[in-house]
Amino acid sequence: MQSAIVPKPLPSWWQAALADKWQKGGFGLYVHWPYCVSKCPYCDFNSHVAQSVDQDIWREAYLSALTHYAAETGGRRLGSIYFGGGTPSLMRPDLVEAIIDAAQGYWVFDNDIEITLEANPGSVETGRFAGYRRAGVNRISLGVQALNDKDLNRLGRKHTAREALSSLEIAQAYFQRVSFDLIYARQNQSLRDWERELTFALSLTPSHLSLYQLSIEPETAFGARARAGKLGGLPLEKLASDMYDITYNICKNNGLERYEVSSHALPSQESKHNMIYWQAGDYIGIGPGAHGRLSLDGKRFATETPRDPTAWLKRAMNGPGESTRQPLSGTEQVTEYLLMGLRTRSGISLRRLKAMDDAVLDPDPLRHLEELGLVEQKGDALKVTPKGMPLLNAILRELVA
Ligand SMILES: C[S@@+](CC[C@H](N)C(=O)[O-])C[C@H]1O[C@@H](n2cnc3c(N)ncnc32)[C@H](O)[C@@H]1O
Ligand code: SF4
Question: d(Cα 85, Cα 253) in Å, to the nearest integer?
Answer without folding.
Answer: 32
